[in-house]
Amino acid sequence: MGVSVEASELWEGVLELTKTAQDKKSDALLWAMQLSAILSAAGVGLPSVELAHLMVSHICFGNHVPIAWKFLEKALAVKIAPPMLVISLLSIRVIPNRQNQPGAYRIYMELLKRHAFSFAPPILGPNYQKIMKSIDDVLHLSQIYGLQVCEPGVLLVEFVFSVIWQLLDASLDDEGLLELTPEKKSRWPTRSQDMDIEGHDSFSEKRADHNEGLQKVNTAMAVEIIGEFLQNKVTSRILYLARRNMPSHWGVFIQRMQLLAAKSAVLRNSKHISPEILLQLTSDTREVLSRECKTMSGKEFHAVMASGSLISSANQLHGIGCSALWLPIDLFLEDAMDGSQAAATSAVEILTGLVQALQAVNGTTWHDTFLGLWIAALRLVQRERDRCEGPIPRLDTCMCMLLSITTLAVDKFIEEEESELIDETEHIPTNQSKEKQVQGKRRKDLVTSLQLLGDYEGLLTAPQAVSLVANQAAAKAIMFISGLPVNSGYYEYVSMNDAPMNCSGNMRHLIVEACIARNLLDTSAYFWPGYVNVARSNQIPRSVPGQALGWSSLMKGSPLTPSLINALVATPASSLAELEKIYEIAVNGSNDEKISAATVLCGASLVRGWNVQEHTILFIMRLLLPPVPADYSGSDSHLISCAPFLNVLLVGISAVDCVQIFSLHGLVPLLAGALMPICEVFGSCIPNVSWALTTGEELSCHAVFCNAFTLLLKLWRFDQPPVEHVMGDAPPIASQLSPEYLLLVRNSQLSSFGRLPRDQMQSRRLSRFSSFSREPIFIDSFPKLKLWYRQHQECMASILSGLVPGTPVHQIVDTLLDMMFRKINRGGQPLTPTSGSTNSSGSGALDACIRLKVPAWDILEATPFVLDAALTACGHGRLSPRELATGVKDLADFLPATLATILSYLSAEVTRGIWKPAFMNGTDWPSPAANLSIVEQQIKKILAATGVDVPSLAVGGSSPATLPLPLAALVSLTITYKFDKVTERFLAMIGPALNSLASGCPWPCMPIIASLWAQKMKRWSNFFVFSASQTVFHHNSDGVVQLLKTCFRSTLGLSSSHIYSNGGVGALLGHGIGSQFSGGITPVAPGILYLRMHRSIRDVMFMTEEIVSLLMLSVRDIASSGLPKDKVEKLKKAKYGLRYGQVSLAAAMMRVKLAASLGASLVWISGGSGLVQSLIRETLPSWFLSVNVLGQEVEESGGMISMLGGYALAYFVLLCGTFAWGVDSASTASKRRPKILGAHLEFLASALDGKISLGCDCATWQAYVSGFVSLLVGCTPMWVLEVDVDVLKRLSKGLRQWNEEELAMALLGLGGIGAMGAAAELIIERDF
Q: Is Coiled coil there in the keyword field (predicted)?
């Protein structure tokens, strides 16, 4: 109480002193000095909050006289009153009364100009927190803005934002524009509620005309101060913090700023600022925080780290300049072509995330980005031109990637931008009634990219198989431009009848047609300069026969005659309407029409209907799930009656390339969900009924089951054993799918679709018929399938339970053995301990067939026991190898679905390693001797450029070729098949499994198998040899490292081989897998080798360490320009400024960027987000903690190599993260990012705090930290929001110790509300 009385007396004395000095007209400085002494003696902290309140209350408005204002200004000047608090107090008193007190308003703005841009003294003073708390109480900042954080720095941002907003609202009110805002008022008082206030006549304010003139001048001054706030280096950066962290308030502020710019006469007449400049200053594109780092010259650093203009001539396509930007796309596209394993994620989704990451990190324009994407996809197709023939067709899949997947990815980018523009338009009242047809900049960039694409003629030449289609696309444009009078069936006739014409069609014509089909372009593209040669219109037939059949005939209502069906099967649909027409027939037509429609959908429209492919797939998926008829009352499943129809669909989509196309579109989980009910129903049927097909054949429920089951098994690597049971060199299965996983993904896809705005945009493109039930399904819904899968896993783990005599399974086992070995007479010797003698009579065979009229699931359950008995009998000499192979072949022919069990059982037995080897001598087992030596020489040629040693096959003479018995049995089975369309479906399932199994066996099992298959299918010899060559790396981890090293050196142009001397994509990926150059097999590009074998690397975790090491070695080689050491020594002694060796820093950084891009791509492709996580959490910290010496060159280069190494790691790590998690939070994988990124930045902060001792070079560490943070801030700002604020503050502090103030402040500026205060204080402390 005593203190309160003393304080009251003190301030009464201060007020009295002020009044006395005012009456005496004392000197303001003398008054201020006297007052300062009094307050200091009384122990009052300066600047004083209480003094600010007292002085403002004294002036407003009882002492509104010049000397009182002088006293107040001098109090601010000598720092006894806090300027920000005085401004706050004046604003709530002066601004509402500015009409009656224009002089006071003018003085308020003068004080603003003098004191509002200097914040350093207050925030460095002892009363900083008290001052900001008082400002909050005066302006009610926490209440108005609603921020949970009330730190002084946050209040400081709110104060600056409020000051400029108060001036803005006052200016709008002065010109009568405030009524035009949606709120029609200000959040602060702009008009006094007491209209009778009169001040002294010191400024002759009673003269209305003078007041009016002064008011206009004041409004102009207020507008100019608003401009100063936006232009001033300090306040503009503080306002940037408000823009980032208070978006809703900033949006309202910007709307009012736009209103001022559009309507203010004062602004238009201002000599100091224009409406255009004002809008530019508030634009979201304006950069006010730099991400420049000072470790090296900022201009040098960002010229290469954030540059990316795709300015290169066509003849540099395979060189380093272009490759540095888009190499990851090339690698992803090529890796996606590997058909050995289906993917559960859409290639469109992955490609979209990848391109978005590269666009953000490289800082390229969208037209450059689109151009780079098209070029990468075209390179993929060109690599397929000279591909050696093999069992897996790829051209249609490559064309799908170019014309369907890539186009859909571009569509997503354009939709994303335009949906945002539509949302913005909907929030503007004046546009509510307008048609929402908004075109964004990305659509224009697409046009530019496609126009520039015409300059890359080397990539546009169409492969022979699609040259006709390209010509037809060019003919369509010529016809349109020429205005040829053609009917709707004209172009269709030309397409179907291969009419002779040469319109110089190329791949760009096909790309443009794909974009037009998806409404990304319109027909104005036909008029682009040089797009087509109209002079070739004479190449096009002028008339067509009246009886031409095709999709136009169907649309006119023609019935599905055999000739029309053949035409529709051979020609892809060109529009969604045509597909919907055939789909309606498949749903509502007669049984024959349904089958015909299903045949059409599975024809050319599925494989080559690139412009409508996604719709075709969805229609097929929908047809595989026929609804229960309303009048159905049977006890059996309604699917039984649909058997012929379903079988047509199953057979139609079972081809290898069809499964690959489903995989690329990300519909494997949905397909699995559609196949499982079919498998469950038809696998449970007793084959007593059959259906007569139009071909005269009989269709049984077993056949339908086998077609559905084998197709289902292609969707995941069913042949891989559980990881805990893998032995020896078996390949990894960390990424293998499973039925449960596929169903989980399927349920997730359907339940989440439509929740995001991008899904809603996509759903508008889909057909009204493309709806699916969102009800989740689980493996428990299919008890028979679940039982088989459990037994399958037991079989793969080699823990098959014993066979119980007398059970139904035992009876089926005996019957199957009788059927398989009915021709063998072994004197009654049983093949199983409990079985009877084999019966060789014809009646016995017939009896066996009758007894096998059981459900397919029951046969599958018995199959492992049958195989166990047969293999044991062969191992003990009771069955010859030929008899074993014949018997197993009979089993597979009887029920092709048993191939899955045959594969899994024999694979498991190989991994057990208990069987004696089989001698491939040509007597008991087939012999590879005829061409094994040739295969060995060809493998050496394929790997010649890698420097990897090929182990000698060392077979023949006293060392005959051998295979494990189960593997020999499997190989013997496969080579008994004739390759036709019927067996193709089953061999496509066997092939990858056999390849995987043989790859895990000791050398030279795979070359032996390749030799045997090459003898059977000579035209595929090169394919088999290439497959065998990959096995070299499976058994030699050093060989994998050597291959990786070759990938780096060839890509960077550092290889001594002339083949790879130019570097870039061409050196890394070449022309595919060994085309027939010069009449023989040639070395395969190292990138192709790696992409084809990386899935078989068991210990993928070691890859991160090796890639980091190779990246650092590449940096050293880049810095030394790849020259011999004697030349490097001479070059080091030269003085080149920013040059080291013969390489300028910019050129070196470009190659460093390329090396990092390659390394990041290899890590991501090899192990996905899991390997990226291991890299960031384990490998990198370990690398920084250990002593890493790149060689003597590190010291002699003056730290250049160390610095480049740090930047290489920074770029490498950020790219790995963006590939795995995306640049935003749209993907599911992004949910794992905050934890991993937070841990890594915690490690960096702890090292900067001195809590961790590093072993790496200091220059490398500093370059890495500054480079990584710079890239983080500039390329992935959303990531910063996910990091703990304390970590950001510690990082910022460490960066400031390196004089990286700009970077430190930019980092805090992106840290959200929690870091906003620290960022504002840093801005002011450094007086930016």
A: no
Three-state DSSP state, 1250: coil
Neighbours of 508 (CB within 10 A): 25
pLDDT, average across residues 591-601: 94
- Counted residue by residue, the chain has a size of 1328
- Cis check: omega of the bond before 1004, within 30 degrees of 0: yes
Distance CA 1006, CA 997 (A): 9
Record the pTM. Answer: 0.88
- Is residue 1268 within 8 Å of 1232, Cβ to Cβ? no
CA dist 149 and 37 (Å) reads: 37
- Copy the structure tokens of residue 561: 């005659």
SS3 percent helix, strand, coil of the chain, rounded to 5, is: 65, 0, 35
Q: Measure the CA–CA gap between 624 and 643, rounded to whole angstroms.
A: 11
- Nearest-angstrom CA–CA distance, 716 and 719: 9
CA distance 564 to 574: 16
Task: Give me the amino acid identity at 967.
Answer: L
What is the SS3 assignment for 19? helix
**Could you tell me the pLDDT band of residue 313, with boundaries at 50, 70 and 90?**
very low
**CA 701 – CA 692 distance, rounded (Å):** 12
What residues contact residue 464 under an 8 Å CB cut-off, 6+ apart?
none
Residue 547 pLDDT > 60: no
Q: How far apart are CA 239 and CA 165, in angstroms?
A: 11
- In 3-state terms, what secondary structure has residue 690? strand
> How far apart are the C-alpha atoms of 479 and 468, rounded to whole Å?
16
pLDDT digits (tens, 9 = 90+) for 934-949: 998 999 888 888 888 8
Distance CA 1053, CA 1150 (A): 13
Pairing of strands 1143-1144, 1139-1140: antiparallel
Instruction: Return phi, psi of residue 971, to 5°.
Output: -65, -45
Positive or negative torsion for Cα 568, 572, 577, 581: positive
The number of beta carbons lying within 10 Å of the beta carbon of residue 46 is 16
Residues with Cβ within 8 Å of residue 1126, at least 6 apart in sequence: none
* Domain boundary assignment for the chain: 118-288, 314-426+439-460, 798-912, 932-1094, 1100-1283
Among 875, 1032, 1010, which Cα is nearest to 943's? 1032
**Tokens 């051979």, residue?**
570
Distance CA 615, CA 502 (A): 31
DSSP one-letter code for 316: G
Which two three-digit tokens encode residue 250? 């900033």
* Higher pLDDT, residue 423 or 1070: 1070
Contact 1037, 1020 (CB under 8 A): no
- Preceding amide of 626 cis, omega within 30: no
1254 dihedral zone (left: phi>0; alpha: psi -120 to 50; beta) = beta
pLDDT for the residue 1080:
61
Residues contacting residue 738 through CB under 8 Å, at least 6 positions apart: 716
CA distances for 1269 relative to 360, 599, 603, 1218, 1321, angstroms? 15, 57, 52, 14, 20
Per-residue pLDDT, 386:
64
Tokens at 364, concatenated: 């390229």
**Cα 581 from Cα 1043, distance rounded (Å):** 52
Whether the upstream peptide bond of residue 61 has omega within 30° of 0, thus cis, is yes
pLDDT tens, position by position, 1086-1141: 999 999 888 888 778 888 999 999 999 999 988 876 444 444 444 444 443 344 44
Distance of CA 637 to the CA centre of its chain: 42
Of 418-432, 789-803, 1080-1094, 1162-1176, where does the model show the most confidence?
1162-1176
The helix (H) or strand (E) run that includes residue 243 is helix 233-245
Question: Rounded to a whole number, what is the distance in angstroms from the first to the last CA of the chain?
Answer: 46
Task: Please give the residue that has the higher pLDDT: either 293 or 874.
Answer: 874
The three-point CA angle 331-337-343 to 5° equals 100
